[in-house]
Every structure is written in structure tokens, then in C-alpha cells.
Amino acid sequence: MSHDTLPRHHFSLCHGLAMSSSDQPASPHPTADTAERPMSDAALARRMPLLPSHLREQAMTLGQQAMQPVGIIESCYPDKFGIPRQPGLARHATAILHLLPPFDDPDCVRDIDGFSHLWIHFLFHASPTRWTPLIRPPRLGGNARTGVFASRSTHRPNRLGQSVVELAGVETGASDRPGGRQTGRHSGVRLLLRGHDLLDGTPVMDIKPYLPWVDAVPQARAGYAPAPPPRHAVMFSDEAEQQLEQRSDSATLRALIEEVLAQDPRPAYHAAKAADGKRQYGVQLVDVDVRFTAYTQPDGSLTMQVAAIVAS
Questions:
Q1: Contacts of 25 by beta carbon, 8 Å cutoff, 6+ apart
Q2: Cα(56)–Cα(44) distance, rounded to whole angstroms?
Q3: CATH class of the structural domain 233-311
Q4: What is the pTM of this model?
């Protein structure tokens, strides 16, 4: 797979599912912490009377299973605030997935460039380990509660997430010594990703090819999230325009800013109210702090105004 059309510096990022301040667990539940303490066989039998005895024995050992990250994400999102709440909503969002030893063997990714998209299974490392059965998703306005397993909240048991991302390129090669002499040792494996929703530093637990003939289910019901979130107009102040013009990546950075702000990254309880443009927000993208305001037009539409783009 060629990635010659992608500027390499766009993947050399300055230091993933985003959590709005409203995407919070509901009030603590007395049973939520029990998942962290092993149950006795008798207790498990009382809690799950329909579970066959041979499965109870297996369940007793499940807490001893361990997983090792296979890679780590270098992302254009250095902070949780502003990350799109689903993958694919900001196509210009780029990341590098660095495979970690011993998974950095080029043989591990042999033939992976034959797939345009990948499933990335990862850990919400910046979310607390505590979880509750009910959460308040932003899609429901940040107030209504729904079950944790009926949501894609970052506050969940095991803190596992999964995203479909575009594979923009694969990099492998021998490491170089000063002077350009090759050592004969491979310098690892890097997967160049696009359209992701991964926070910088995200541990990756597994990678699988996306197969549209089995993974896509167009007729599936989507509950309380039947359609993509609305997109809003994004405007740039003269100051922001001047700051963009000074960058070599101005086109791609502008596109990323537009894609992120068009989805209104403000907390859900702010987005639920009319905006007067007086409050300024900041979202970190790549190596800049994008400062913006929001205001509601007379016709009810929302406009996001970029006030300044400041190096972070």
C-alpha cells in the first residue's frame, strides 16, 4: 500500500475514544467494585444459578488471565477533550501505531497492506478503573442514563475499546547508525493510521483486518444513536488564518480543526443550551492549542468560531 500522497511530517506528530465531561458514570453502585475481587465458587453459584458448574470452574480462573500490549499510539490528539466520540468522523486525524517487542517483527504484519482498514483493540488508559452499571452518554444529553453495555463509554469494565481505522501505510526497515550505515537490525514496525479516535499514548492490545463483507451490517438497528452527529459550520478569525498560513501543514491542520470542531466537542450540558459566543474553549490538536467559541445563529444553527491557534 502506498502512502506517497501523505506528507510524512503529518505522521511525525508532537505528542483516543474521547470522553466528554458528561460521559461520566452515574452514582456509584455497590456491586461495581466486586469485579475487582475474586468470588468464591459458592458465591458465584449464588450470583449465577443458571451458570453450569463446569463453567463456574472456568470463571474462577478468568481473573488470572493477563494481556500484554502489542503496541502504543502516537496521536494527533494529546488530550481527551476534543477527540471525536467515534472513529471515522475526522478523516484527517492521523496516528502512528508503534509495535512493541516482541511484536515488532515485520513478519507480524506480512500481507497487512492488502487491507484498507483495521480493527484496533485498545485500552482506555486515561479513564479511571472504577465503573458503574449506568452511565450518562453525551448522545442522550449527558443527563439520561443507560446501561454501560448499551453504550460505548470509556468508563467500562476492563476499559477496553475498539475502533475501525484506515491503514494509510506500513513502515519497516533496518535501523541506521550515525553516518547512514545500517546496523542490519530492523528498527521495528510502524502502522500509519488515519480517521482514528485514539489518545496519544493509548496501549494497543490487538490488531485485526476489517472485512466489510462480514463486519459491516447496514441493516443493523442503532438504538438511541441511529445517525451520525450533526455537523456545524466552522469559521476562522483573521488572527487564526494568519497563524495557519505560517505552518507548512496548514491545509491538513485546517481540515483536522474543521472536522473536530464541526462535531461540537463541548461538554453535552453546554451543547444543550443556546451559545452566545462569550465563553472560550481550547482543544489540543497535534502541537497547537485551538481556541474557539460557539454561538447560536438566529435560525437556530450553531457556528464554531476559531479565535486563535497557539503553539502548545
A1: 130, 131, 132, 134, 135, 136, 148, 153, 155
A2: 7
A3: alpha beta
A4: 0.82
Distance, CA of 207 to CA of 70 (rounded, Å)? 8
SS3 content of the chain, % helix, strand, coil (to 5): 20, 30, 45
pLDDT, residue 4, reads 42
pLDDT tens string 36-69: 556 676 777 788 888 888 887 787 777 667 889 9
Whether the per-residue pLDDT at 279 is higher than 60: the answer is yes
Indicate whether 30 pLDDT > 50: no
User: For the domain 8-28+67-215, what is the CATH code?
Assistant: 2.40.30.70
How many beta carbons lie within 10 A of that of residue 239, not counting itself?
14
25: β partners: 135
- pLDDT of 250 above 70: yes
CA–CA separation, 230 and 139 (whole Å): 11
- Residue 13: what pLDDT? 45
Domain range summary for the chain, segments of one domain joined by +: 8-28+67-215, 233-311
CA atoms within 13 A on the CB side of 300: 1
Rounded Cα gap, residues 224 and 12, in angstroms: 38
What's the CA gap between 35 and 47, in Å, rounded? Answer: 12
d(CA 242, CA 255): 16
Neighbours of 3 (CB within 10 A): 16
Q: Comparing C-alpha atoms, which of 290, 222, 299 is closest to residue 256?
A: 290
Closest CA to 134 of 271, 30, 38, 39: 30
pLDDT in tens, 186-216: 678 999 999 999 999 999 999 999 999 999 9
**Cβ neighbours of 10 (radius 10 Å):** 20
Residue, of 1 and 94, whose pLDDT is higher: 94
